[in-house]
Amino acid sequence: MKPEPSRAVENAAERRRFEEQVAWKEVDQLHAATLQFANKCLELKKLCVALCTVLLVWLADKNLRFVECAVLALGLLVFFWLADAQNFYYQRKTRRGIAAALGRARLARGLGNSVSPLGLEKDAVNSVLSSLLNTSQLFYFYLGVAVLVALALTHHA
């Protein structure tokens, strides 16, 4: 026995509404995760500045050569840069997930799927490199220059 055509249409419409609701729930969850990664990036930068300041004050009183101090300070900066890059990578990954979920919601609504450039998959190497080398990461370069100048002034190279 075949279902009535009107019942089949109702089931299809119901399924599309369900798929759209699921897609929107996924967008909400991914958006919350993206915000958490963004907040972690900001918190890492604040912690890095604080620890670099403490390290500079501590190294100013030590009888260490400039090179030793620079290696310690730059090692700290590299650690934070890599941690921040990892958060940035996952932040971008969740944004691509949001774009994909929005595409699924558009399909469920019957609007077609217009994929934004953000939703396009990148290969792993480009994605990692863009996380390591982006304008947000320039912060660590500038902080490194400031730390080296401060160390040079305190240790008279």
So how many helices? 4
Unreliable runs: none
Approximately how much helix is present in the residues? Answer: over 70%
Shape: rod-shaped
**Overall residue-averaged pLDDT value:** 81
Which value, in Å, is the CA radius of gyration? 25 Å
Q: In what range is the share of β-strand residues?
A: under 5%
End-to-end Cα distance, whole Å, is 90 Å
Number of strands: 0
Describe the structure.
By secondary structure, the chain is mainly α. The chain has four helices and no strands. The longest helix has 56 residues, at 5-60.
In short:
With 157 residues, the protein is mainly alpha-helical. 81% of the residues lie in helices and 0% in strands.
Name the descriptors.
single chain; 0% strand; rod-shaped; mainly alpha; 157 residues; 81% helix
List strands and helices in order, with pairings.
Layout: H1 5-60, H2 66-109, H3 124-132, H4 138-155
Helix pairs in contact: 1-2, 1-4, 2-3, 2-4
Protein name: DUF202 domain-containing protein
Organism: Nannocystis radixulma
Keywords: Membrane, Transmembrane, Transmembrane helix
